[in-house]
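TL;DR need structure tokens for one chain.
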Amino acid sequence: MNYPDDGAAVKIFVMIIWILDTLHVSLMCHALYYYLISNYSNELALANGVWYASVAVNLCIACLVQV
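>> reply
TL;DR here they are.
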């Protein structure tokens, strides 16, 4: 509504970035809950890479925005 001159490609790109950012925040919330609530004081849980998916999504966002 605020940018009527933007093409459909730009609007779709913004929507994709928005969805990926929402996914990233969700994955980070899951990782924080996993490490700080579910496995509190469990050093062996640190060996599990729950946060890897969040890093991958963040990398995708950074690459798309920089391109």
